[in-house]
Design brief:
The complex is a heterodimer. Chain A contains 2 helices and 11 strands; from the N terminus they run αβββββββββαββ. Chain A is mainly β. Classes of the chains: A mainly beta, B mainly beta.
Chain lengths: 266, 227
């Protein structure tokens, strides 16, 4: 019963050690055990509470550089990497490519390094999950010759890098983030320029990376294993036919956001 | 560890000194050892075991975060007269005509403390030009400032399908309408803010049309250690 309960001293009461100690002990216990009703409704304002954006080891993202990346650089791929299988992990995952810019440093375009964030509210960093938002703008067009009839799809996915076991700094695919999109090609090749037969499209992906994602990678790693990075990947999938020499896939403006969120998992 | 442990106790037979008494009432030099602890030093360790977490009703609304949105489904048409002098082959930031805010794709809101904001939006638009160099673009603006990485365009969606020389157009909207589900993350300070999508077209595009669109903002309190 940590409520503060005082017996007031009256005139003519003797000041004894016990009469002085009792109220002190009661107040001490009350301060060390504030009850739910000890805080009135709406008592906590911005000065009292923390943030849902976990700041553990993450510095202020000045210049859109740390927590999120914004860029509009485009890059073209001719006869690019081929998607081979679903759900594979590792450093080389079905020969995808990192969404990277044309200039150095490579592989830094849609890749965010994290200061070893353990996901899971009980893992120490109080991060319930990593909220990831990714946009990939792309188009495909025929460099020369007739349109091929769009025999391929662009695949995008989100990967995470895990700190140690089972493979040091390996990248794992979050399987449910795989997206496939067909080119949109106008069937009548009536334009003068080869790029006239297509329209640019966006592949948006929203994902919350939670501890369960670490348990299902192969081979599995322990929940709470520190995550060192998040990146976006692309590949090409050929249901039939193949990628003709004259086909070009061009990535346009791409964005990615990663926010470590503090939350209660219910 | 702000658990209060009073510095002094009183026992029979020991003289009560002023310093013993005062040390329990107020001593800012001895952390968590006097009633001075209530001057802003209480934290979760002072919560009773029956109070496992701060309840939503004990926190002021909008402290952790807030959100809002706008949306619209009416078709909006934009004609070439409104974009006089605009050549979309030029750099996006040098439009002679200011891009026009799209109703249902913009929001005005107030930020009471520094935040990280995540904008997300959905929009569909097209135009009826048959010239591939004449495009209709949609851009994100925040506080009247163009976000250069956040722009998308649609090229002509009509083809010269009529007899030669007639310029009759065949609309290819079923495969050339432009859909954009985008996002943008940034920090905002205290004050009123505006954000949203704006449209601009080449001056030779006869007509551009926006269909369904929505715009959302999610405000998250910025960590105190960030500048």
């Amino acid at each position: 019963m940590p409520d503060i309960d005082l017996t007031f001293l009256k005139d003519d009461d003797a000041l004894t050690a016990a009469s002085l100690q009792a109220p002190s002990t009661s107040i001490e216990a009350g301060i060390n055990g504030v009850m739910t009703y000890g805080l009135r409704e709406g008592a906590l304002g911005a000065a009292h509470v923390g943030t849902l954006v976990v700041e553990t080891g993450i510095t202020d993202p000045v210049g859109d550089a740390t927590l999120y990346v914004q860029t509009s650089t485009s890059q073209a791929y001719n006869a690019g990497p081929a998607y081979a299988s679903f759900g594979a992990d590792g450093a080389v995952d079905r020969t995808p490519i990192v969404l990277n810019a044309a200039g150095p440093p490579p592989e830094d375009w849609l890749k965010l390094d994290l200061p070893s964030v353990s996901v899971g509210m009980t893992a120490g960093d109080s991060v319930a999950g990593l909220l990831v938002l990714m946009n990939v703008e792309w188009e495909t067009y025929v460099q020369s010759g007739a349109p091929t009839g769009s025999p391929y799809r662009l695949m995008t996915c989100i990967q995470i890098k895990v700190a140690t076991s089972p493979v040091t700094s390996a990248w794992f695919t979050i399987d449910r983030t795989e997206r496939f999109m067909e080119p949109r090609v106008v069937p009548v090749a009536a334009w003068a320029a080869p790029t006239d037969t297509v329209v640019r499209q966006d592949i948006p992906t929203r994902c919350l990376i939670v501890p369960a994602d670490l348990a299902v990678v192969s081979p599995p790693v322990l929940p709470g294993e520190p995550i060192l990075g998040v990146r976006g990947m692309v590949s090409l999938y050929y249901p039939t036919g193949g990628f003709t020499l004259g086909d070009i896939v061009e990535l346009g403006s791409c964005q990615m956001t990663v926010i470590p969120l503090h939350a209660e998992v219910v | 560890m702000p658990t209060l442990t009073l510095a002094n106790s009183y026992s029979a037979g020991s003289p009560l000194t002023p310093s013993d008494w005062n040390g329990n009432i107020y001593d800012a030099t001895a952390p968590n050892a006097s009633f001075e602890i209530i001057n802003g030093h209480l934290d979760k360790d002072n919560m009773d075991a029956t109070w496992p977490k701060v309840l939503p009703e004990q926190v002021q609304r909008g402290v952790y975060g807030s959100a809002g949105f706008s949306a619209g489904t009416a078709s909006l048409d934009y004609f070439k007269q409104w974009f006089s002098g605009c050549q979309t082959t030029s750099a996006t930031s040098t439009y002679p005509t200011r891009p026009m805010p799209i109703p249902g794709g913009n929001a005005t809101f107030y930020v009471s403390h520094p935040v990280m904001v995540v904008f997300t939006w959905t929009i569909c638009w097209t135009n009826i030009s048959d010239n591939q160099s004449e495009v209709t673009r949609v851009h994100l603006y925040v506080d009247d400032t163009l976000k250069t990485s956040q722009g998308r365009e649609v090229k002509a969606t009509a083809e010269p399908g009529g007899p030669s020389g007639t310029y009759a157009r065949v609309h290819q909207g079923r495969i050339k309408n432009r859909y954009w589900i985008g996002h943008h993350t940034m920090e905002l300070g205290i004050g009123h803010h505006t954000a949203g999508l704006r449209i601009v077209a080449d001056e030779d595009v006869p007509q551009s049309r926006v269909w369904a669109r929505s715009f959302r903002y999610i405000l998250l309190k910025k960590p105190a250690t960030w500048g």
